[in-house]
Amino acid sequence: MPVVTRETPTDAHQRLQSDDQLAALIDRHGYLVIEPAEDPFRRLVRAIGRQQVSMESAAATWERLTDQFEVTPTAIRAADTEALKAVGLSTAKSDYVKNVAQAFADRGWDRAFFAEQSSEAVVDELTDIHGVGPWTANMFLMFGLGREDVFPVEDLGIRQAMESLYAVETRAAMRNKATAWAPYRSIGSLYLWRYGDE
What b/e sequence results for 61-98 when a residue is b if at least 16 CB atoms lie within 10 Å of its CB, and e otherwise? Predict the structure, then answer.
């Protein structure tokens, strides 16, 4: 799993504990960190599956997808759209995952390729693909590549937590508040999601 709990704090936790709200969440949930996914392609496909659906629905679709298909660029490119729809992907998402598979094949994307790119460059690469927007690109940065300084303000759960904890309502104000967490905004975001789960 990309999110793990450490036994001892890292530099990220020491930095984030200067924020009273995050310090309380760290006390409750432990020392959360992000690690890169083993397979960036699988993680990006999984992020697409999670677009605008519940976590439960996305998890069920992912389980059916991985039961029926080898989730590789070659296999997904060759997959029949109707077969992808049968496991729970919409027509649009079936197209999106095939678009991503084609991009991985055409552009030679792999872990080494992305490791050399800035986060901004990765977002530009990904959002050039039909079906990959800023939210999906940021999920990939965080959970695919393990980048520690991403603030996915596009995410509803993040915005709800920011509004509840900090009484900020606009995305600009949320981004401004989160600048104090840099360069560990991804780690701060993990705690916002945990707050939402509470």
Answer: bbeebeeebebbbeebeebeeeebeebbbeeebbebbb
**What would the pLDDT profile of 85-114 be if each residue is shown by its tens digit?**
999 999 999 999 999 999 999 998 988 999
**CA 54 to each of CA 38, 71, 122, 191: distance values in angstroms, whole numbers, following the listed order:** 24, 21, 26, 19
Q: Residue 129 is which amino acid?
A: I
Q: Rounded to the nearest 10 degrees, what angle do helices 156-166 and 171-178 cross at?
A: 70
Maximum separation of any 2 CA atoms in the chain, in Å: 51
pTM beyond 0.70: the answer is: yes
Residue 8 has pLDDT above 90, yes or no: yes
Question: Which residues lie below 8 Å from residue 81, measured CB to CB, with a gap of 6+?
Answer: 91, 94, 95, 98
Q: Distance from first CA to last CA of the chain, Å, rounded?
A: 21
Find tokens 């079906």 and name the residue: 131
List the domains of the chain with CATH numbers: 3-35+150-197 (1.10.1670.40), 40-143 (1.10.340.30)
47 burial type by CB count under 10 A (0-12 exposed, 13-18 middle, 19+ buried): buried
Name the phi and psi angles at 31, rounded to 5.
Answer: -95, 85
